[in-house]
């Protein structure tokens, strides 16, 4: 679920998670109480928090965008693991400018929708924070939560620098 704070200065949840998601989340919480809740904050350069994405341990969320030259789909997917933000896998539509696979960086496989995934990357993100210059509507940077909810970063912060930062959930025990 994404808490979008960019709209009228108040939180606005984007779409409720499906019931099986909530049931599964409750079950995980009961079975594994040692798991610490975390969240990914979308922070504007001026310090404002534009949105918050719930980041339960092991649940993958992705940053999607269109390649600035070819317009093809690109995605980087992340998960929280023991308090560390990890790049888990990447989707690339082809070997366009700046895209490609390094053998020591995960395993490449063809994607059923075309393009390819690089999986098993498991690379820690330095400082648990990913700086991002948000692209225009054509680039269409967006976050996709585990429940499928999307936050259009280009609509709320095009042309600005934001940071996607992992932080403890203040509501967590």
Summarize this, please?
The protein is mainly beta and 173 residues long.
Descriptive overview:
This protein is mostly beta strands. 10% of the residues lie in helices and 40% in strands. It is globular and about 40 Å long. Residues 6-35 have low confidence and may be disordered.
Q: Pairing-aware structural class of the strands and helices?
A: mainly beta
Give the overall silhouette. Answer: globular
Order of helices and strands: EHEEEEEEEEEEEHE
Total number of helices: 2
Task: Give the tally of structural domains.
Answer: 1
**Poorly predicted ranges (pLDDT <50, ≥5 residues)?**
6-35
Q: How many beta strands in the DSSP annotation?
A: 13
Terminal CA distance reads 19 Å
The average pLDDT value, as a whole number, equals: 79
Radius of gyration: 16 Å
Q: Indicate the percent of residues in helices.
A: 10-25%
Largest sheet: 8 strands, antiparallel
Beta-strand content bin: 35-45%
Chart the SSEs and their pairings.
Layout: E1 2-4, H1 19-31, E2 38-44, E3 49-54, E4 61-66, E5 73-81, E6 84-92, E7 107-110, E8 116-119, E9 123-124, E10 129-133, E11 142-144, E12 150-152, H2 153-157, E13 161-168
Antiparallel strand pairs: 1-3, 2-3, 2-13, 4-5, 4-11, 5-6, 6-8, 6-9, 7-8, 10-13, 11-12
Entry keywords:
five-stranded antiparallel sheet; 173 residues; eight-stranded antiparallel sheet; mainly beta
